[in-house]
Amino acid sequence: MSARALHPAGLAALALTLGLAACDRPAPRRPHLAAPPPGVAEFGLSAVGAPLAPVAPPAIPAPAAAAPVTWDRANQVFLFKGQPLRAEKLWTFEGATDGFVATGGEVAPADGLGMTYREVGADPILRSPRGLNVDGHVRTLVLVRVVRTLAGTGWDGTLYYATPGHKESAAFHAKPVFGGDPPLNTPTVLIFDMKHPAAGGADWTSSLIDQIRIDLDATGGGEFIVRQVAIAQDPGGLIPEPAAAKP
Questions:
Q1: Contact 174, 209 (CB under 8 A)
Q2: Residue 74 has what pLDDT?
Q3: Residue stretches of the chain with pLDDT short of 70
Q4: Rounded Cα gap, residues 186 and 150, in angstroms
Q5: Rounded Cα–Cα distance for residues 238 and 163 (Å)
Q6: Residue 105 C-beta-side C-alpha neighbours within 13 Å
Q7: What was the pLDDT predicted at 240?
Q8: What pLDDT, on a 0 to 100 scale, did the predictor assign at position 62?
């Protein structure tokens, strides 16, 4: 039947039928942009493909090298390659503090071998007795064997010293070449090479040493057991050669 034969009422009915049929058809699909996969920014791209500034990974501090020195408890000596180190001064703190005193801290004999050192002040300091009279030319190593029993809030690890010619000061100090920032509950030997101090040049090796001062943590709150302290002779081969200066 042609459209000419349709009554106007029929045309209206046909239009209604076609409209209902169109409603039954699915709507046309629109393109869907998926969200960028996780981690896009990690590879240097933003969500729209623009480059991002690289994000540096968090720095992981390198662990301090373990000292190649051990403590021989039976013979009460430090050993290097199985041979005893020659120590002019050796403190073992057997039931005593051996004349060591603390500023900003407290010292007391520890249970067993050693001395408990509690850091309670803002700048805790541990000092040896005075009048050591050590020939710095011959005895160029200072060894401090400790066990950290309570974490503090900031490692320092500096050795100062006094001579008949000068008091302790920042102009004369050394940092450990082995054993910095001891982990908890781990016996650690700090070794200071006084032939190559951080400051002072050849002062140690040309002086008589009157007293040493050990700053373990920079602030209070920590606690150590100081097992032994020694001022000893370098046997050779123990201290790494200093890096050559760049031209």
A1: no
A2: 94
A3: 1-64, 242-247
A4: 11
A5: 26
A6: 29
A7: 85
A8: 47
Residue 228 per-residue DSSP state: E
Other C-beta atoms closer than 10 Å to the C-beta of 128 total 23
Q: What is the pTM of this model?
A: 0.73
149-178 confidence digits (pLDDT tens): 999 889 999 999 999 999 999 999 999 999
Predicted local confidence at residue 135, as pLDDT = 97
Per-residue model confidence (pLDDT) at position 111: 85
Q: Please answer whether residues 76 and 86 qualify as being in contact, where contact means their C-beta atoms are separated by less than 8 angstroms.
A: no
Strand order in the sheet with 173-174: 101-103, 125-127, 211-217, 155-162, 173-174
Q: CA–CA distance from 47 to each of 14, 51, 55 (Å)?
A: 50, 10, 16
Enumerate helices (H) and strands (E) in the chain, giving the number of each.
1, 17
3-state secondary structure of 156: strand
* Rg over CA atoms, the chain: 37
Residues forming beta bridges with residue 214, ordered by sequence position: 126, 159
Exposed/middle/buried for 176, CB within 10 Å: 0-12, 13-18, 19+? buried
DSSP 42: G
Place of tokens 């450990």: 176
Give the CA distances from residue 191 to residues 4, 48, 113, 151, in Å, rounded to whole numbers and listed in that order.
111, 55, 20, 20
Location of structure tokens 């007391």: 108
Are 205 and 109 within 8 A, CB to CB?
no
SS3 per-residue string spanning 96-148: CCCCCEEECEEEEECCCECEEEEECCCCCEEECCCCCCEECCCCCEEEEEEEE
Q: Which one-letter amino acid corresponds to residue 189? A: V
